[in-house]
UniProtKB/TrEMBL annotation:
Keywords: Membrane, Transmembrane, Transmembrane helix. The keyword Transmembrane helix applies. The chain crosses the membrane at residues 34-58. This is LCP family protein. Belongs to the LytR/CpsA/Psr (LCP) family. Residues 1-27 are annotated as: Disordered. It holds the Pfam family LytR_cpsA_psr. Residues 107-245 form the Cell envelope-related transcriptional attenuator domain. It comes from the Bacteria.
Length: 343
């Protein structure tokens, strides 16, 4: 009997045909929930156990672009250049959100590290502010999103690995249109805003459609802490989207799930190693994850400053970043988050 509960009997009930049918129904709901959780976070999808798996597999296979080539992987080093032994504990996904607008070549406006511990009991998401001032291999000091502008995913991955001293295993990139379309697929989201803004958002709860959600995750100039505040908004939106999409009525609706799957994957690009089989395996492993198991935090920074070129920057908290890297390497993110992240 597998550890993820597939095929297990309902505790305390006899092994009857009716019991097995009920378990299968629960398994299908669990598979759909896993699908939605993964899509909400970074667009990965699983069709196993879903009645319309053929349709979903066709949709995903046609939508997802495995066009990110990370090239030959370099050894992981710490910020001081010293090699760091890989522990093989847990899996790290780098999720990039690119905000492409008319006349704009695209920027990495969302940079989130998603850590899945080895026991698959949680999903821990760390937002890295785009203005974080870091060392970029071969390019000197600059904002972290400049790594993406200079060398796309390979250089951003190398920058993140050096900053944290951990291996990034997979990369997924989507654009903000995906956020908009996923929101509309579930009929809108209810999201909490820490502060209002010029985009019509009020402090407190807001009911947003796709167009409004797009404005919500883009706004930063009228917010009190600029990019930091926007990052918190983006994480609040992801959580709201996940909670809405995993409501029982949405999970049970094949049309809603199919629309959501299409919206999440039509602009999704992943690395060559993230095959459909790998995506399926990851999502099945996370089938028991619920909303409370998805944790959000912001990468440690110590304040604001100005670069030698006059740009506004976020200053890295080096001690805090070292603690974060150690927690990722040793699969102790739960302890790290308890100590260093305030509600």
């Amino acid at each position: 009997m597998s550890d993820n509960g597939v095929g297990s009997l309902i505790e305390g009930l006899p092994d009857t045909q009716e019991t097995r049918r009920e378990q299968k129904r629960r398994d299908r709901r669990g598979s759909r929930r896993a699908l939605i959780v993964m899509l909400s976070i970074f667009g990965l999808i699983v069709g196993t156990g879903v009645a319309y798996v053929g349709y979903l597999a066709f949709t995903v296979g046609n939508n997802i672009d495995q066009g990110i080539d990370l090239g030959e992987r370099q050894p992981v080093t710490a910020p001081d250049g010293e090699p760091v032994a890989e522990t093989g504990t847990g899996t790290n996904f780098l999720v990039i959100g690119s905000d492409t607008r008319p006349g704009d070549a695209g920027r990495s406006d969302v940079i989130v590290l998603v850590h899945v511990p080895e026991d698959n009991s949680a999903v821990q998401m760390i937002h890295f502010p785009r203005d974080l001032y870091v060392d970029i291999p071969g390019r000197g000091k600059n904002k972290i999103n400049a790594a993406y502008a200079f060398g796309r995913e390979p250089l951003l991955v190398q920058t993140m690995e050096q900053l944290l001293g951990v291996r990034i295993h997979h990369v997924a990139r989507t654009d903000f249109e995906g956020f908009k379309n996923m929101t509309d697929a579930v009929g809108g989201v209810r999201v909490y805003a820490e502060e209002g803004g010029a985009d019509g958002i009020v402090k407190g709860w807001n009911d947003l459609n796709g167009e409004q959600a797009l404005a919500f995750v883009r706004e930063r100039y009228t917010l009190s802490e600029g990019d930091i505040s926007r990052g918190r908004r983006q994480l609040a939106f992801i959580k709201a989207l996940m909670l809405e999409a995993t409501k029982p009525e949405n999970i049970a609706n094949p049309i809603t799930v199919a629309k959501f799957a299409n919206a999440a994957t039509e602009n999704l690009v992943v690395d060559k190693g993230l095959t459909t089989r790998a995506m399926t395996d990851y999502a099945i492993a996370l089938r028991n994850v619920r909303g409370g198991d998805v944790i959000f935090a912001t990468a440690p920074f110590s304040g604001y400053g100005t670069s030698p070129q006059g740009a506004s920057i976020d200053i890295v908290d080096e001690a805090g970043m070292a603690e974060l890297g150690e927690a990722l390497r040793t699969d102790s993110m739960d302890t790290y988050l308890d100590v260093f992240v305030t509600p």
